[in-house]
Write a structure and sequence with these properties.
about 130 residues; mainly alpha
């Protein structure tokens, strides 16, 4: 019969606990003295004042900003995009119509003026109750 199979009444448990309190095993000689000595030594070691630490140097604002943006890789990508945007903004897009002519085969103004970017805009306007957009 396994111990888990046995059913105990509360009175049986009380008797077992009472017997466990009476049958206290004797400690080996000197064990309690060694345990108390170790506890006293640990208490003394913990009660010593820790030496004052030097203040930790805080990262500068540039390092914090760099970390906030994602590190050197992200910042280098942002710097490249910024330089490219300034360059394109400064030089202008004067070559774009020539490129559109080369790609589309017609003057850029004629081709771009005849392109309907929203072919279903009339149906959208009717659905929304608006007049046509032309």
């Amino acid at each position: 019969m396994v111990m888990a199979d046995r059913k105990f009444a509360p009175q049986d448990l009380d008797a077992l606990f009472a017997q466990a309190c009476v049958d206290v095993p004797d400690l080996p000689p000197g064990l309690l003295a060694r345990v108390l000595a170790d506890a006293d030594a640990e208490l003394a070691a913990r009660s010593r004042v820790a030496p004052a630490r030097a203040p930790v140097a805080r990262a500068g604002i540039l390092a914090e900003l760099l970390a906030l943006l994602g590190g050197w890789r992200a910042v280098s990508g942002l710097a490249t995009a910024t330089v490219a945007g300034v360059w394109i903004g400064f030089s202008g897009l004067s070559g774009l119509p020539d490129m559109a002519t080369a790609l589309l085969g017609a003057p850029a103004t004629e081709t771009l003026a005849s392109v309907n970017l929203l072919p279903g805009d009339d149906m959208f306007a009717l659905a929304m109750g608006l007049e046509t957009l032309e």
